[in-house]
Amino acid sequence: MRAAVFTKYGGAVEVVDVPVPELLPDSVLIKVGAAAINPIDSIIRSGYMQSLLTLQLPVTLGFDVSGVVTECGSEVTQFQSGDEIFGRADTLQASTIADFVMVKASDLAMKPQSSTHAEAASIPLAALTAWEGLVSEGEIARGQRVLIQAGSGGVGTFAIQIAKHFGAFVATTTSAKNEALVTSLGADVVIDYQTQDFEAELSDYDLVLDMLGGETLVKSLGVLKRGGTLVSIKGSPPPGLAEQFGVTFKSFFMWPDSTILAELAGLVDAGVVKPVIDRVYPIAETADAYEYLAGGAATGKVVIEVNP
Length: 308
What we know:
This protein is of the alpha/beta class. It has helices spanning 39-46, 117-121, 124-137, 154-165, 179-185, 198-201, 214-220, 241-245, 258-269, 286-294; strands at 2-6, 14-17, 27-37, 59-60, 64-72, 84-88, 100-104, 108-110, 145-148, 169-174, 189-192, 205-210, 224-232, 248-251, 277-282, 301-305. Helix 8 (241-245) links the parallel strand 13 (224-232) and strand 14. It is globular, with a radius of gyration of 19 Å. The two termini are 15 Å apart. The mean pLDDT is 96.
């Protein structure tokens, strides 16, 4: 079968022939309709996480998947052959940019009925990150004032919609060219990061979801009211700084969760949440897709169509 792989850390992305994975009892074999790419893929390919992950080269890329179940492991009861599913594979099964992938059944849910495989594949990692950051970690509540950093990115586009679903007043940062997009997703206040200083424009916010880290993370502390919460997927402030502001800081890595995925699928089918896709590439052009994503210009998600 075809698969997008890297054969050495720091090396190029290639599409090559590899064996179909052998099915485990707790997993299903999926004929991949589409997969999405994420910055974490390139971080892994760079070798930055070698000390945390033991991977056998060559490594097939991709965490997000939408496709059709072709075979179920002996312990799987919630799915059957022919089911259209979507999900985020765990780290050791992350190999979704391929004709077939094996994923634990517990990491999957039935895909939104209204979505194509390309649309469904764009959802799992980014939407789970947004949900877990806002709901599981941030404990978002109706009426709160919430700042979403990088609102036009893969996580940000979902985060705006999820925050509005929970009844929050939402501010976000983006460039001027994406103002109409984030407004259409529900943003109440839009800060053009190229011409405005969000720290000077915003104050007394209850919750910030940060996807940028660095100086942006530190400055985000200043927009929170005392007792507020900053949740970040990228880095931490200097020790003791959050306490000086009288706020709570949380850092987390997203985790697969089929229950949240099923709820997200329902929201998509209800028209409450919609995926935002920037570009769709065929599997043969996976290397070009990663190059485009690395350029930082993507709005929403970049998707790989494998078996349209």
